[in-house]
Amino acid sequence: MQFSVKTTLPMLLATFFSLTQGLPTAIESRASASTQQLADAQNQWRADTSKVSQFLSAVPTLHGSQLEAAAQVALAAENDELLHKKVLDDTFSSDKRIMDANDVLVNQGTFQSVVDALGKFANSGATMSSSEISTLLQNTNAVRCGQVLPAIDTYFHVTGEKLNNGGFLIATRPTNC
Asked: Which domain of life is it from (predicted)?
């Protein structure tokens, strides 16, 4: 059986269009899920960032086991931020702004330095002197306020552009930033 281009091309196009008839709906529905995942990741990352900022704001008023317990909550939130960051990294990995923000957070070690400080508060806060607590808080806020939070703001800005919902989130700052 021989087919010519004149008969084969129309048959192929007809088959293609019949197979892809429901495709735009499937693509739209998948895009909605992706948009929702981005919004959820951004909102949850911001909530975790807020928990850490609330802790850092409260450090001067916390003592002993109360400091350690609050630091455990902040440390868990800080570690949870990585899950939400990954969702945004997977989506925006080729965006230069995200690459630069990731460089600040990961390659320069700023995020890890906050994790380490929160771990120190959580594990040794009860035995630290008030001057040690104050120094650790100042050093943590210097890195977090000066580098980490602006990098997170970049993630939120890029995500906001994609969501196109009329606004941009910023990471919550501690009162002692």
From this structure: Eukaryota
Q: What range defines the domain where residue 57 resides? A: 34-163
Question: Residue 90: inside a domain, yes or no?
Answer: yes
Is this prediction's pTM over 0.90? no
63, burial (CB in 10 Å: exposed 0-12, middle 13-18, buried 19+)? middle
Give mean pLDDT, residues 162-167. 83
> Distance between CA 130 and CA 11 in Å, rounded?
80
For every residue of 5-63, DSSP letters joined together read HHHHHHHHHHHHHHHTTTHHHHHHHHHHHHHHHHHHHHHHHHHHHHHHHHHHHHGGG--
If one counts the domains in the chain, the total is: 1
